[in-house]
Specification:
- This protein is an alpha/beta fold.
- The protein has one domain: Rossmann fold.
- It contains 13 helices and eleven strands.
- An eleven-stranded mixed beta sheet has the order 1-2-3-5-4-6-7-8-9-11-10, sandwiched between helices.
- Helix 3 packs across helix 4 and helix 6 crosses helix 8.
- The chain is globular.
- The N terminus is likely disordered.
Length: about 350
């Protein structure tokens, strides 16, 4: 950890009225498994954890999380928390291509890099926000360091190792598809890829023409070689912090997230299934995800005085009524909402909740 590089940059993005530009500080520290780069926004807040993000395969922190954290309503959250965006090794902008034969860290080893980051920053606890491979990495970290993680937002998590059938399908796909095509199939649904929207074209271009494509393939291989998290509801191996699981309706990982939900403590878990969001809800529905994240934080005891959006206020009565009726029926509740809605009722995460929004 003796080697350190620090670069100060100003994030380029549209500013809200009265908002000042955020200053981002990018650091690179050495760990037992190689160097890792991360970018810090804001300053630590007393008695509050840092928000730490980890991106999926084929992306970096900007391409994975920028639409979410630049969303207007998210500004209220980021003003209350310092945030750390981790780039997996070799995924940061301008990263050199690893030499031939380089042994890329496993996902478990990537999780073991996080303590080096927090030790350097002198941060004691985090709220993790991860997508895909990043969600797995943060979950692995939470299992080995439960006292360091106050909460987790896990988007598109697959907690299982690949089975024999998965491996066979993966190998067959590799015979006919390029690495970028396989990664796009991991990130987005077949309906999205077939529709070839502007978003799909943008990310297809990012991945296909990535100067560090060889590095991306190494991260992809590590993801496909992940171990089973062995989560068990009521067992010794489980996530002990509040968890919000998020997946898009018809997303590639919908079944895996549903299975993960069945393995977690229902008194600590919220399950958000988002309609019309595709494979990457943080890109396609940042407003709905921001609202859900805000309620998740309130349930953990933070931002109690946070203002509700007009959309939330307009639906408070109906949500409260539905919650009071369903609350008497079961601890596991389903709140069905229209595609315009995307809210979770505030309060502690004392039940598993599926919200189709």
């Amino acid at each position: 950890m003796a080697e350190l590089q620090e670069v100060q940059i100003t994030e380029e993005k549209p500013l809200l009225p009265g908002q000042t530009p955020e200053v981002a500080k990018t650091h690179s520290v050495e760990t037992p498994y190689g160097s890792v780069t991360f970018t810090v926004y804001g300053t630590p807040k007393p008695k509050r954890p840092a928000i730490l993000t980890y991106h999926d395969v084929g992306l970096n922190y900007k391409s994975c999380f920028q639409p979410l954290f630049q969303f207007g309503d998210m500004q209220e959250i980021i003003q209350n928390f310092v945030r750390v965006h981790v780039d997996a090794p070799g995924m940061e902008e301008g990263a050199p291509v690893f030499p031939l034969g380089y042994q890329y860290p496993s996902l478990d080893q990537l999780a073991d890099m996080i303590p080096c980051i927090l030790q350097y920053l002198n941060f004691s606890t985090i709220i993790g926000v991860g997508v895909g491979a990043g969600a797995y990495i943060l979950s692995r970290y939470a299992l080995t360091h439960p006292d360091m993680v106050e909460g987790l937002v896990l988007i598109n998590i697959d907690p299982n190792a690949k089975g024999w059938m998965d491996w066979a399908a993966h190998k067959l796909t590799g015979l006919t598809s390029s690495i970028p095509e396989m990664i796009l199939g991991h990130l987005f649904s077949q309906e999205e890829l077939s529709g070839n929207s502007e978003l799909i074209q943008k990310y297809r271009n990012i991945i296909t023409h990535a100067p560090n494509l060889e590095n991306i393939e190494l991260y992809w291989n590590s993801y496909n070689n992940r171990r089973d998290l062995n989560l068990e509801r009521g067992g010794a191996v489980t996530l002990k912090c509040p968890v919000m699981l998020v997946v898009g309706d018809q997303a590639p990982h919908e079944d895996a997230v549903v299975e993960c939900n069945s393995k977690l403590d229902p008194t600590q878990t919220s399950f958000l299934k988002m309609a019309d969001s595709g494979g990457q809800p943080q890109l396609t529905q940042p407003g709905k995800l921001t609202e859900a994240f805000k309620y998740f934080l309130q349930g953990m005891g933070y931002m109690a005085s946070s203002c509700m959006t007009r959309l939330s206020r307009s639906r408070t009565a109906s949500l409260t009524s539905a919650a009071s009726i369903d609350g008497n029926r079961s601890r596991s509740r389903t709140l069905s909402q229209s595609s315009e809605s995307g809210t979770l009722p505030s309060g502690p995460p004392g039940h598993t909740m599926e919200v189709s929004c």
